[in-house]
Amino acid sequence: MAEQLLYPVPEEWAAEAKVGSAAYDAMYAAAAADPDAFWLEQAKRLEWVKAPTVAGEWSFDEADFGISWFKDGVLNVAANCLDRHLATRGDQIAIIWEPDEPGEEPRRYTYAQLHEEVCRFANVLKAQGVRKGDRVTVYLPMIPEAAFALLACARIGAIHSVVFGGFSPDALAGRIQDCDSRVVITADCGRRGGKRIPLKANVDAAAPRAPSLEKVIVIKATGDDVPMHDRDVWYHEVAASVSTECAPEPMNAEDPLFILYTSGSTGKPKGVLHTTGGYLLWASFTHELVFDYRPGNVFWCAADIGWVTGHTYVIYGPLANGATTLMYEGLPNWPDASRIWQVVDRHQVHTVFTAPTALRALMKEGDAPVKATSRKSLKLLGTVGEPINPEAWRWYHEVVGEGRSPIVDTWWQTETGGALIAPLPGATDLKPGSATKPLPGVHPQLVDETGQVLHGATSGNLCLTASWPGQMRTVWGDHARFFQTYFTTYPGKYFTGDGCRRDEDGYYWITGRVDDVINVSGHRMGTAEVESALVLHPRVAEAAVVGMPHDVKGQGIYAYVTLNAGETGSDGLNAELKQWVRKEIGPIASPDVIQFAPGLPKTRSGKIMRRILRKIAENDIGSLGDTSTLADPSVVDDLVANRATLG
Ligand code: WT7
Predict the structure, then answer these.
(1) Is residue 537 marked as binding?
(2) ipTM for the complex?
(3) Which H helix or E strand runs over 286?
(4) Domain ranges of the chain
């Protein structure tokens, strides 16, 4: 039987969708024809202290480079996510929290309760000296207090910078220091998949390398014993004596909302800066459109708040839309492969939004753990973070969704604030593996290496030719790097770093990064970062890191390591180096394989030929191409002969 390549919009969806196929076309056309009018109209979905009179003012050209949206508008993000819902849905559940331990009781917060918690948290921040514009680093597990913390920052105009709980003390210290953050919010410990994550101890270890740090606010989450120092305060102690009223700070639309660090192809992670009005509008607009969100639906984005997906689709998008959002502390496959679907049943989840890597890991366990659950509440499925292989797509569609639920494959980036290319469940026929078509206001363009614009069905490098409200505004502290990173490869355009194919129907198929960034389990990793960590080891002379195919992670990390003269590689050193990178950056950066290489393939001018290293890692030895231009072509034979494989 031929594989089904096109999945038309199901009839019930076509009949009832908020935005059907014709409406999508009309919206797309309207946003293209008069973007200012379109976005000023859309801006009405938010509550403004002062409504904006101007929409996008931007240029991607060097001479007058700059991006702003709604620059004369005034609003507060927390007021939009909380206060304005109080009259209409104060008693509706805003957050359902599912704990790591399956036997433990979930926690639920109505909009009224969440409002109170956020006001209390905001007053705690104020009591600790946090003021508008200050940076607050958030290093928390997936507990409700993480949502309170983010919204509390937004309420008083402080800029939050969330650091994923899986990052090491070193990585945390770098991120605290880069944005001169004086305050860190953390917890005694985190829990994930039955394991403890020593968050407070990690902050203590980071502190000596983060001199800007003055205060640590510690949430008692697990009750583990942790040492408290002069700079530390228990959240619950301060919270006991503050008021639960806190007026939202009126913010300009272009005031910063948050910083989120992400890896690039060069240098240290960049602090991606998002601002207040445009970001919130994009979060709200895309959450409603792409997930066809309706009141009463329980929406579950399974991402951690340490990533942009958690910011936009666990917190800001759903809460701006008055939704019920589910926050899950644990892992999709713990204690077993049924857990994610048990959570769906327990909370009658309508939409589940997760990463292909999680689906591939679950798929390996077979259909039985899925079929042991009902999933009758589940009406819509989403994926994000990396290309989804058609096999995983079909498994998600047939086995998980029993064929009734559309899958929205959302392509976007930390930089884009929210989804840019994605189907609308009631409007777009689906093709497994394609993120389908651009959302209104999104203008993709494919170009070749030289910048030549490519038309029709073709493959090329994916650029965006126009700004959209959710676009990042700068790299924290380094505006020149912002311009240099995204707008100089193809002048006048935003270059995404992704390769992409467009088919005869105008559908987009993201093929993966074309720069030195790899995508490990839906998380972005800069190869340069892993290399820098490896060469810090006293026995390592040089390292080159590339991606390799990995059937669960999508891409694994393949490291070629040249040791100092006189040193020899061993299994022991191999394991030690993997552990070293875990400690330097975090578990997600630890190489899957390490190959000790006496030499790396270099051009005569000393540049490492990564193309060759990638081919060897992919076991695509037949197409290594011309190696005669290398300074020493014989190194390639050694690399091929001693290729490392997943153990
Ligand atoms: C990179 C961005 C999107 C938020 C989570 C990751 C890849 C993302 C898809 C998708 C194919 C995808 C791209 C992109 N990516 N979504 N649906 N299909 N690739 O955010 O860490 O900033 O990574 O993830 O390569 O550039 P991020």
Answers:
(1) yes
(2) 0.99
(3) helix 276-290
(4) 521-642
